[in-house]
Amino acid sequence: MKSLGKILGLVILGLLLIVVAAGFALTHLFDPNDYKDEIRDLARSKAGLELNIGGDIGWSLFPWLGLELHETTLASVQTPDQPFADLRMLGLSVRVMPLLHREVQMSDITVNGLNLTLSRNEQGRGNWEGVGQPTSPAGQPAEAPQAPAESQADEGARRRHHAAGRSSWTSTASPSAMPG
Questions:
Q1: Where are any strands of DSSP class E within the chain?
Q2: What is this structure's pTM?
Q3: Which of 107, 115, 132, 125 is nearest to 162 (CA)?
C-alpha cells in the first residue's frame, strides 16, 4: 500500500512539474508582440477601433491569463488621425480554467496614464463615434476622416465643441482637481 501511495504521489508531482514547465516555456517562447498586426486588424474589423500599440505587449499565464498593452492610442476608424485615447498601459486579465469550458471570467481592467480627448467637428460628429461598429466589407472606414483634433491635455479628459464658428473646451478632469 505504501508503494502505491508513493507511485501516485510521484505521478501527481510529475504532472504538476510538466504543467509548470509548459507554462514557463510558453510564456518565454511565445512572443505576443509578433501578433500586433493581427490584433490591430481584429480591433479594426470587429470593433471599428483604430488601435496603435507603440510599446510592448506583456502577458502572464496563471492563475489569470493577462495582457498588458503599453503606449497605446485608440481612435475611431472613421477618424484614425484623431485618437480619442492615449494610454501608458492597459491591462486585461481573465481566469484560465473557465476558458477551457468556453466561459470568460474577467478579473480586472487596469488603465494607467490615460489621456482622453473627445472632440466634435463642425458637423457635430465626435472623434469617438463609430467605435463598436464593424468596418465596411472592403475594410475601409464608412466615411472620410474629419479635420485633425487639437492637442491633447496632459492628464484627464477634455471635450471640444464647434458651434457658429466658435470652439469651446470643457475639461472633465485636471491633475490639480484630483484628490490625494
A1: 49-53, 57-60, 64-76, 85-95, 106-112, 115-119, 156-163, 166-171
A2: 0.58
A3: 125
